[in-house]
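FAQ

Q: What does a record look like?
A: Structure on top, sequence underneath. For example:
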């Protein structure tokens, strides 16, 4: 699976570089994520994102783009010594995301984007104070994650762009289990703030 995804990423970038009307390159950055519907609060789960992108202008102001990237999401709760809360909880989710979006330039360097993304769940896991969850407490996540996204992009140089965006699942990533456990309350949704750098390849 890793080899197939790597080959897809390479082909994706090569196509973008070779196509005359397209710009393409690589991207990398960090996620700050939480999962709405569990008992944790705040963007406390860090993660990496790595991949490639392709983009083309529809007009002087509007452009469209797509990406393929590995993205780490989830949630985290650390023990709080100030309150005496000793409970630890970590949810780790790894997706292969494919966002598609439209961008609108408001100036030569700044633009705003909005779009949709579909993610395929490559791996998942949950941990507490005692380690990985036992099989009887394990509830599988949905195979796909569907998100809406908005963000802004700043051109730092001719080749380098800074991207800041918010992505939120509009369908649950895991459904209500029928019983309420201490580590989840309701249907769960990925809630992710990401910052990344885009580097344009080719001329």
């Amino acid at each position: 699976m890793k080899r197939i995804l790597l080959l897809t990423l390479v082909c994706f970038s090569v196509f973008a570089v070779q196509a005359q009307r397209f710009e393409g390159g690589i991207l990398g950055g960090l996620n700050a994520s939480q999962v709405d519907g569990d008992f944790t609060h705040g963007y406390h789960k860090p993660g990496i994102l790595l991949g490639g992108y392709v983009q083309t202008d529809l007009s002087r102001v509007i452009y469209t783009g797509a990406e393929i990237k590995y993205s780490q999401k989830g949630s985290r709760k650390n023990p709080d010594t100030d309150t005496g809360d000793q409970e630890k909880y970590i949810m780790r989710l790894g997706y292969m995301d494919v966002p598609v979006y439209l961008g609108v330039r408001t100036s030569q360097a700044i633009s705003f984007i909005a779009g949709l993304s579909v993610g395929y769940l490559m791996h998942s896991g949950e941990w507490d104070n005692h380690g990985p969850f036992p099989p009887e407490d394990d509830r599988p996540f949905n195979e796909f994650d569907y998100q809406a996204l908005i963000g802004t992009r700043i051109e730092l140089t001719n080749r380098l762009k800074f991207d800041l965006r918010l992505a939120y699942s509009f369908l649950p990533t895991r459904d209500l289990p029928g019983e309420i456990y201490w580590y989840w309350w309701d249907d769960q949704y990925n809630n992710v703030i990401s910052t990344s750098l885009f580097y344009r390849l080719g001329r």
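Q: Is there anything notable about this one?
A: The chain has a mean pLDDT of 85.
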